[in-house]
Amino acid sequence: MEELILGNKQLLWLISPIVLCSIFSVAIMLERFFFYLTISGKKTVVLSEIIELTKKNKITEAIELCQKKPFYGTNILKAGLSQNRKPKKAIEEAMENASLYEVPKLEKNLNFLGTIAHITPLLGLLGTVIGMVNCFYTIEQVTQTAGMVNPTDLAGGIWTALLTTAAGLSVAIPSYIMYNYFIHKVRLLTLVAERASTELLEILSGGSYSNEI
Question: Is residue 68 part of a domain?
């Protein structure tokens, strides 16, 4: 198959962007998978510890814990803790501003993965259209000269159409599945940070809100 692709310049031109998309897709999926894996295990325990320290009015210890174990959740809480002596509105704004920097880190490269999932079937469809155009062009040329079309005359165009479609779908399907999985992870992680921020805000502002993270 490799020799056939390399020998067919048109097929190589159509397959190359799909192969390139597959490389980027795999790289993004691996990077995001290990990224979420590293923060998923520690998010609940660390945030709970920070909340408990804050309840005991150990603000300095809570900030130090945020600095020792930095990730999106602790960075957001640290912004609120650093404003602990200020009004509730100032604490809330500090954590909201921090989330504007931290949440995009959770979504890094997901837009590219979503784009790959959408364009690779279109690239495959483009190959299908070009392959069918070649088939009809061959039919026209052969019928004008020989008067009868041989199946082998159409094989090249059909091969191009089927191979590019299969290649496009084989990249798009796993990319789309992983894109939706990662979006789900982002929503869960964001929800955890929002709950912790809300509880911290109520504690620092003198409220009695309490909820398990």
Answer: yes
| 211 within some domain | no
Token pair, residue 33, equals 């998978």
| Residue 145 tokens, joined | 């000269």
Residue 146 pLDDT: 62
Domain of residue 123 covers 2-204
Nearest one of 64, 67, 59, 66 to 84, comparing CA atoms = 59
**Total tally of structural domains belonging to the chain:** 1
The token pair at 209 is: 């809100």
Cα(74)–Cα(141) distance, integer angstroms? 69
Measured between alpha carbons, how far is 174 from 199 in angstroms, rounded to an integer?
A: 38
* pLDDT score, position 56: 87
Beta carbons of 46 and 73 less than 8 angstroms apart: yes
In a domain? residue 209: no
Torsion of CA 178, 181, 185, 186, to 10 degrees: 70
Separation of first and last alpha carbons in the chain: 54
Q: Is residue 213 in a domain?
A: no
Give the largest CA-CA distance in the chain.
Answer: 92
Rounded mean pLDDT, 17-37: 93
For 74, half-sphere exposure in the C-beta direction (CA atoms, 13 angstrom radius) is 22
Are the C-beta atoms of 51 and 196 separated by less than 8 Å? yes
